[in-house]
Amino acid sequence: MSEKTQRSGANSPRAAGAWEVANRVVSGEALGRSQRRRRGQWEALRTLWDCSTLDRVRACRRTPRGPAVALERRAGRARFTGLTTCGSVWACPCCSARINAERADELRQAVESWHARGGTVALLTLTMRHRRGVALATYWDALSPALAASLGGRYSRARKAKEAAGAEGHVVARECTHGANGWHLHAHALIFLNSPTPDAIDELGAAMYAAWAARLKRQGLSTPSLRHGVDLRVLNLSAAREHAARYLAKGTFEATRAAGELAGGDGKAARSGNRTPWDVLADLTAKRTPQDLAIWREWESASRSRRALTWSVGLRKRLGLGDELADEEITDDDDEPSELIASLAPEIWRVVRARRHGPSDLLSAAERGSPDEARQGCAQLLKRWASRAGPQPRAGPRRGPAGKEEPRLRPRNAPDGPSASSHAGSGSRAVRHDAQGSGAPRRSRDSANAASRRQTNGATR
Ligand SMILES: [Zn+2]
Fold first, then answer.
1. Predicted model pTM
2. pLDDT single digits (tens) 306-324
3. 32 CA to middle of ligand 1, Å?
4. How far is the CA of 435 from the centre of ligand 1 (A)?
5. 63 C-alpha to center of ligand 1: Å?
6. Phi, psi at 407, each rounded to 5°
C-alpha cells in the first residue's frame, strides 16, 4: 500500500482494509472473471459514447436521469440506478446483457414447462446464401417475409406439415455475423410440438425449406441448398434447455472472444474469419479502425427497430408466461430490494465515467466485503478520483463542420478521457450516504412502473 493510500485511509483497521481492497480492484489484481468481462462491457460502451450513430446508445449509462446516481448492491452484485438506459438489444453491450438474461430465463421456463406436459421441442435453423458487397439491410428485409412463409404463413404445405407434427407455436431468434463474404444473417427457431412422428418431422423440414427458398427467390436472393438452407432436429430436454440459454447468451457482448482481451488490456490482433457484431465492437474498441467503424455503423443502421426474439401468437399464454416485456422495460430500473452503497451527485458521476475503468471498478469495489466495508472502499475511491480530476471541460461528442458528430478514434490504451467538470474537485462531496442505505434493504424508484411490470409479467417473476 502506498504512503498516500495510508494517509488517505481512515484510522480504523476496517476502513484500511476496505481501502486496500478498493486499491486492488483499481489495479485489476483482485478482479474475477465476471468483473473483467464487465470492464470489457463498459469499455465498449465508452467507445459507443463516442462512435454510435444512435442517440439513445450515446447517452446510455452516461447521463443521470435525476438528481443522483445510486450505486446499489443486491445478492452480492452491484449496479447503478438512476442512469439513462438505451434498451438496445443489438447495439448496447450493457443493455443487451440484461435483456438476454431475462429472455433466456423465460425460454428456459418455456422449454421446461412444455416438456413437463409431454411435449417435444425441435430446433430449426434457417440460413441464406450470402456474398460480399450486399448490404445487410437487403438480407434483413428478406428475412422477415421468408421466416413468416416457412413458419406457416400462406404456404399451405408448411402449414399442413405443422399441423401434422402437432406444432403449437415457435420462438424465433435472429443472429448475424460478418466475414470475408460479407454479412451472414440467419435465424433459429424453437418449435413446440406434440408427439411428432419421424415422418412428420421430415415433412416439416422439407416444407419449411420449400417455403423459405421460394420466398428468398421472390426477394431476389439466391436460393440456398436444402442441405445448407434448413436444419430441423428434435431436442431432448437437456439439449433444449442448453440451447435456450446458449443462443441468447451468444447474443451478448460478454460472449465475444474479445471481451476478456479488452479487460486484459493487451489489445490483441483483430480476429480473422466471421465475427459477430459484438466481436466487431470489441475490435473497434481495441483498434479504432475506420473499417470496423463502418461495419459497426452499418450494423447499427440495419438492425435498428428489428426484433431479436419473437414468440408466435398465443404461445406464451399456453405456456403460462405473462405478457412479454419490451426491451426498454427490462433495462428500466426495477424496485427489487437492494442495499445502497453510495449516492453520487451528477458532478461526481462525471468524474467516475471520465475514467477508463471508473464505472466498472466502482461496481467491483461495491461488491467487496460487507456492505459497510464496500461503502468505505467506494467512498475513499471516489474521494481519490475527485481529488485527481482537473478543471477540464466535460467529455462530449465532437461536431464536424455540418454539426454532425464525428467519432474520436482514440487509441484504447490512451490515458483516461477528459476529466470531470471543475466543480467535481471537492473530495468531501464525493459520496453521500443515504440514511436508508445503511443496513436494511431499500426499495428504489419507479415503483409504479415496476408494479405494472409485475402485473404484466405474471408468472414469469
Ligand atoms: Zn444501453
1. 0.75
2. 888 889 989 999 888 888 8
3. 23
4. 30
5. 11
6. -75, 150
